[in-house]
Amino acid sequence: MSRQTARWEDGRAPNGGRTILLWVVTSLSAGWFVPEPSLRAQEPGQEVTTVRVTLQLRDAEGQAPLMGALVRVPGQARPYITGVDGQVSFDVPVGNWVITVRKGGYTTLTHELEVAQPEEVTLQLKRLEEVEAGLPATLLVRVREAESGRAIEGAAVSLVGGETRLTGRSGNVQFTTLSGEARLNAEMIGYADRTEPITVHSDGLTVVDLVMAVDAVVLPPIEVQVRSQFLLANGVYRRIDSGQVMRLLTREDLEKFPVSFLSDAFSNVPGVRVDRQTLGDTKLMGPGRGNPDGCELTVYVDGLPTEMNIDAFSPEMVELAEVYWGLRTPIQYRGVNASNCGVVLLWTRRGGGE
Question: What is the pTM of this model?
């Protein structure tokens, strides 16, 4: 049989009984959640024996279970929080332990446990006659998965119209300096959003258990792209991926807007003007310095310059086309004319696509 002793804040022990009442108000502050070191050190090589202790916390007047009470045990990283049944269980090594119990609107209790074997201890907290001025109103939200009950880390919890915070590994998130009616919103990928009205009590800690249901997220199908070794060797993908290309005409563009002449496909490319004197004399014009009519862009086919007319190539032959002018023109394609104007790099389906 273990010995249970309660102590008041001034160190005096109450007369008899296991029922503990404390009359000193202690504010719930951020420091409450800071881990504290263990009160004892183990001898090297000593085997540690732990036992399970279950606390039942009740209201001293109505004997109702107290949910949301915080129980701090020395050596534990975080405080324990009682559930709807007012209970909390924890494992500690055999020995003497001094625990602290806090709940908004109740006196703070310090209780000494002499742990020798598993046991259940019932503690009673007395309501405050008057809440100490300046006691912060605190909202503690515990986010759990509906089916498994496990904590959900990384959920975005917010008060509608207020700040948003992310839950930690324990699934908990805390808000302070607020009270009254509010709407609580929780979002997490893979779960259905929750928005619920709540009431935050002004006399200390309000605990909300928020359960989220799994909601399947429809993701776009995986896109597999097979890239041409020929285009890769000629630096085409490098220029596209780095954003160096000024204008790009793709196979998809040509299929979406079919044309009879290849030059017609460039009529929708910004910065390029199609100059068709006759059916066999079509030029692609780029912006020219000091020349309102622009200058002729040099055409390359699969990396080689060509004197052939642009319309001599069928639209079905082209895999893609790159357009450059001015100093943005790749240095390897700056010929005598290109250095003053620009280039159109045609890559055929035979060379780069098929």
Answer: 0.41
